[in-house]
Fold this protein.
Amino acid sequence: MLALVGYGSGLFVPFRDATSGADTYGGGRYLADTAKGTDAGCLEVTTGSLDVVVDFNYAYHPSCVYSPAWACPLAPPENRLRIAVRAGELLPGATP
């Protein structure tokens, strides 16, 4: 999980899972809790707690999936999941 300091300290979670490269983009997908104090609903953080609740229904593909003009950060090794996350945005033709 990363903080988007330049954008008002929203949280950013790039991740890969067992669907990456098949049903989703091979570089992974993103979750972002909207910056500037608004609540996108995908990440729930409780002040004073180290726990974060993640809603993968909000997972989306990075911009580089749609245009080679974009360079997208990849998920770090600690954000690579062994399970298939069959929630959020999938590639066209993928089975949910």
